[in-house]
Amino acid sequence: MYKQSGLFFACAVALVLQGCAVSSTNEVVKPGVQKSGFMGLSKTADVKVSSPKALKNQSDKVVIGSFKVGFLTDGKAAAVAKGGYFSTSASSGKASARVHLLGISTEDLQKIADQIYNDFVAQLQAKGYTVIAAADLVNDAAYNALTDLGTASPEENVVINMIPTGKLTYVAPDSQKLIYYIGEKKAAFAISIKTIQQSQALADATGANVLAVNYIVNFAGADSHGGYTTSASVKVGQSLRVVAGSSVTFYRGKKDPTAVLTLGQPVASDETFATIDNITSKAGKALGTAVNVASALLGGGTSQSEEYNFNADAAKYSTEAVKVAKQANEKFIAQLAQARQQ
After folding, report:
1. Which residues 6+ apart lie within 8 Å of 28 measured at CB?
2. 154 preceded by cis ω (within 30°)?
3. Closest Cα to residue 137, out of 215, 214, 62?
């Protein structure tokens, strides 16, 4: 009887190990290709444009009404196994990992944001745009009405709709405040409506196109497997990138259409910048195993969760973050300039 019980317990532990697995690698984890179209069979364009007509006959003058970079500092990756197409189990396994970025100060982030902004301006000018500087708008009522809606930079622990399981530090260039638009920050809907109205008013007042730039920089990637299978797994690794969904919104006057240019594919670095430590406590692992064994014995699902610190080399992180953001700048501005020629 004891042998049978021991065998049964061993089988339960085996089920736990089969149901979910979490691990890490110090190597780069490449982000997946974003798909769209019928049944998700087509590769999403590098830059998507919501209203191409809004970019036609555009002015050669530009005001950067808002420019901000959200740096992910805490995040989560997860995968769920649903037990196969013919399984009666609600969930065979769930694997998840929490990740934390260490070694990067707000001063580092400010320097990065400033470099990205300066490059954005330089690339606009290289394409023939005249960028009206903030210093030249200090007495402009429409510009002041827009900036009055902003908050001080940086702002830490911001939760946004794009990444609901993570926290960001948002940073604006030295010369600007943080200005949020719809969907960029939770609980900011009323203010974000006003920022749209004031951006359009600024375009009318200056005769310039008003750009609102919103980049999200992630530091971690995950190779995840789940779905209709009997097991779920997550392997986290380094993946410094400007995420898909980062955007440049193009405002004209109140009577004119607005275009939103969105990254359809992430712009990622292929270089490492950190070492990764598993900081999950032994007690936490033991408790998790015990709970999973009990659940397996009762025919339920299992789960495994691990926690990792990414100990960044600040110089390498900064170099790679600026590099990928400059590439994102190039993609967006090329799209704007191309439409201007049509």
Report:
1. 221, 237, 238, 239, 269, 270, 271, 272
2. yes
3. 62
d(CA 226, CA 112) in angstroms, rounded, equals 36
Q: Which domain holds residue 91?
A: 2-341
Q: pLDDT tens across 8-40, in order?
A: 444 444 444 455 688 889 899 998 888 887 667
Residues 294-324 have pLDDT tens digits of 444 444 445 688 999 999 999 999 999 999 9
> Is the sign of the CA dihedral 215, 217, 222, 223 positive or negative?
positive
Q: What is the DSSP string of 127-156?
A: TT-EEEPGGGGTT-HHHHHHHTT-B-S-EE
What is the domain count for the chain? 1
Its sign, for the CA torsion 18, 20, 24, 30, is positive
Q: Each residue of 58-89: b (16+ CB within 10 Å) or e?
A: beeebbbbbbbbbbbbbbbbbbbbbbeeeeee
**Which tokens belong to 87?**
């399984």
Report which listed range, 230-234, 270-274, 283-287, is most confident: 270-274
